[in-house]
C-alpha cells in the first residue's frame, strides 16, 4: 500500500483500526489545518530527506512577498525553528544572508509545498505521512500557535496588517525573534541592521508611543523614496540610535555635516521626540508640543558643532542661527510626537518648492489630525511586512 500511489482514500474508521501500524498511508483529502502558524517537517529534494522543523504562515491576507521578493507559485512562507541538518542548502536561498538551514533559523523564507509535511496531527493533502505513535509535548512554539487564533485585535490595528500584528503578538513574542531591516550606506552613512522586536510592532500597530527603532525604520523607507525620485543628494538622515549627550557628540555631528544637503535629525529628550534640521549652517527646531519649549543643552551642543564645522571650512566663526518653527503642526493629543516627527520629514520631502520654511515660520499653527499620522503609520507597517 505504501508504494501504491493510486490507492483509494482511507476512511477514518480504517485509520482507527490500523492504529500503531508502521506502514505509510495515502490520504487524498482531509480538513485543512486551523488558521495561523502551524508546525511542519521541511524536506529537501525528496520527502524523506527531512532537514528541519518549521512554522508555516498561510493566511490569504498576508502580502505575497518575502524580503521584498514575490512568493513563487506552489510555495509557502515558513520559519525554521528546529534544525535536523544545519548545513543543508535551503530551497530558495537569499544570497549572502540565508543559504543554509542553520542560517534560516528565526527568519521567514519560501519552501516548496511538495516538501512540507504537517507534523503535529498526521497526514495532510501535501504528502503522505507515517503516523506518529506519541504526540510531542507542547513547547513554547506550540503554545504560541494555540494563542495565534485567540489574539484579540485592538481597535487601532489596521485590518490590512492584522497578520503582522498576530505574528508579533504570538510567534515573535514567544520565540524572542526579530524582524531585521538592512540599511545600506545611503541611509545613515554607515551600514547597519535595524532589529524590530515584537513590542515595537505592537506599539506601531496599536498607535501607541514610538521609540527610535520604528522612527529609524521609517527613515530607511524615506531614503528609498528620495532615491527613487533621484533626490538622494538633497537629504541626509542622522541615525537616532547613534547620538546622545556624550563627550564626542559635537565631533560626531561635525563628521556628518554637509552644506549641500538638508539633515534630518530626530531627537529624543525626556521621552519626547522632536525634529532638528541642519541646513546651510542653520539649525531649525520642530517641536510637536502645543506650547513653546526650549532645549538649551541641545541648542548649545549643536551650536558648538556648527561653529567647529565652519572653522574647518575656513569660514568666519560665528554662532549659527537657531530657528524655532513656531508654526509647525502640533500633535493632536499627548503621545503622538513620534508620528509627528515622521510626518514632518515626509511633508518636507514632498514639498518640492520648500514652502514649509515660510508656512511653518508663521505663528498661525494648526494640528495634525489622526488621518495625517495614519499615513506614515501605514507606510511603516507596509515596509516592515515586506521583510517578514
Describe this structure in words.
There is one protein chain. This protein has 388 residues and is α+β, with helices and mostly antiparallel strands. The protein has helices at 12-17, 101-104, 140-148, 162-175, 185-188, 198-205, 212-228, 249-256, 296-312, 337-350, 356-359, 370-385, and strands spanning 24-25, 38-43, 50-57, 65-66, 69-70, 75-83, 89-94, 98-100, 108-112, 116-118, 129-130, 179-183, 192-196, 235-237, 262-269, 272-279, 282-286, 322-324. The chain has a 5-stranded antiparallel beta sheet. Strands 14-15-16-17-18 form a 5-stranded mixed beta sheet, sandwiched between helices. α4 packs antiparallel against α6 (198-205), α7 (212-228) packs parallel to α10 and α8 (249-256) crosses α9 (296-312). The longest helix has 17 residues, at 212-228. Mean pLDDT is 80; it is low at 1-31 and 121-133.
Structural descriptors:
about 30% helix; 12 helices; single chain; five-stranded mixed beta sheet; disordered N terminus; 18 strands; 2 domains; about 400 residues; Adenoviral Proteinase, Chain; alpha+beta; five-stranded antiparallel beta sheet
User: Regarding CATH, which class of the largest domain?
Assistant: Alpha Beta
Which fold name fills CATH's third level, the topology of the largest domain?
Answer: Adenoviral Proteinase, Chain
What string gives the helices and strands in order? Answer: HEEEEEEEEHEEEHHEHEHHEHEEEHEHHH
- Number of distinct helices: 12
Query: Which shape, going by the Cα principal axes?
Result: elongated
**Would you identify the CATH H-level superfamily of the largest domain?**
Adenoviral Proteinase, Chain A
User: What average pLDDT do the residues reach?
Assistant: 80
Distance between the termini: 41 Å
Low-confidence stretches: 1-31, 121-133
Radius of gyration: 27 Å
| CATH architectural name of the largest domain | 3-Layer(aba) Sandwich
Question: In total, how many domains does the architecture comprise?
Answer: 2
| Percentage beta strand | 15-25%
Q: Helical amount among residues, as a percent range?
A: 25-40%
How many individual β-strands?
18
Structural class: alpha+beta
Largest sheet: 5 strands, antiparallel
User: Major sheet: order of its strands?
Assistant: 9-6-3-2-10
Amino acid at each position: 500500500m505504501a508504494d501504491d500511489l493510486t490507492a483509494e482514500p482511507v476512511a477514518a474508521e480504517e485509520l482507527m483500526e490500523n492504529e500503531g501500524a508502521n506502514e505509510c498511508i495515502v490520504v487524498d483529502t482531509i480538513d485543512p489545518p486551523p488558521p495561523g502558524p502551524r508546525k511542519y517537517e521541511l524536506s529537501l529534494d525528496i520527502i524523506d530527506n527531512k532537514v528541519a522543523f518549521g512554522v508555516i504562515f498561510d493566511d490569504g491576507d498576508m502580502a505575497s512577498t518575502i524580503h521584498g521578493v514575490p512568493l513563487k507559485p506552489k510555495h509557502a512562507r515558513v520559519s525554521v525553528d528546529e534544525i535536523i541538518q544545519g548545513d543543508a542548502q535551503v530551497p530558495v536561498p537569499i544570497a549572502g544572508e540565508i543559504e543554509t538551514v542553520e542560517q534560516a533559523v528565526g527568519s521567514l523564507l519560501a519552501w516548496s509545498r511538495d516538501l512540507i509535511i504537517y507534523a503535529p496531527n498526521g497526514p495532510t493533502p501535501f504528502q503522505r505521512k507515517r503516523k506518529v505513535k506519541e504526540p510531542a509535548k507542547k513547547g513554547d512554539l506550540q503554545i504560541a500557535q494555540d494563542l495565534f487564533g485567540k489574539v484579540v485585535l485592538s481597535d487601532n490595528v489596521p485590518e490590512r496588517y492584522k497578520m503582522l500584528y498576530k505574528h508579533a503578538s504570538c510567534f515573535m513574542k514567544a520565540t524572542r525573534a526579530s524582524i531585521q531591516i538592512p540599511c545600506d550606506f545611503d541611509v545613515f552613512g554607515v551600514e547597519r541592521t535595524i532589529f524590530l522586536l515584537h513590542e515595537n510592532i505592537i506599539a506601531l500597530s496599536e498607535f501607541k508611543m514610538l521609540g527610535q527603532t520604528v522612527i529609524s525604520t521609517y527613515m530607511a523607507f524615506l531614503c528609498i523614496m528620495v532615491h527613487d525620485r533621484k533626490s538622494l543628494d538633497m537629504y541626509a538622515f542622522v541615525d537616532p540610535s547613534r547620538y546622545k549627550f556624550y563627550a564626542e557628540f559635537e565631533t560626531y555631528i561635525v563628521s556628518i555635516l554637509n552644506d549641500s544637503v538638508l539633515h534630518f535629525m530626530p531627537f529624543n529628550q525626556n521621552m519626547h521626540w522632536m525634529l532638528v534640521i541642519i541646513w546651510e549652517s542653520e539649525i531649525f527646531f520642530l517641536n510637536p508640543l502645543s506650547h513653546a519649549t526650549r532645549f538649551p543643552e541641545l541648542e548649545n551642543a549643536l551650536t558648538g558643532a556648527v561653529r567647529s564645522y565652519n572653522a574647518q571650512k575656513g569660514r568666519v566663526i560665528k554662532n549659527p542661527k537657531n530657528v524655532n518653527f513656531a508654526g509647525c503642526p502640533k500633535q493632536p493629543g499627548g503621545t503622538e510626537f513620534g508620528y509627528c516627527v515622521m510626518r514632518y520629514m515626509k511633508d518636507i520631502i514632498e514639498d518640492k518648492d520648500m514652502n514649509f520654511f515660510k508656512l511653518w515660520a508663521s505663528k498661525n499653527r494648526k494640528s495634525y489630525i489622526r488621518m495625517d499620522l495614519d499615513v506614515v503609520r501605514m507606510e511603516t507597517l507596509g515596509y516592515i511586512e515586506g521583510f517578514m
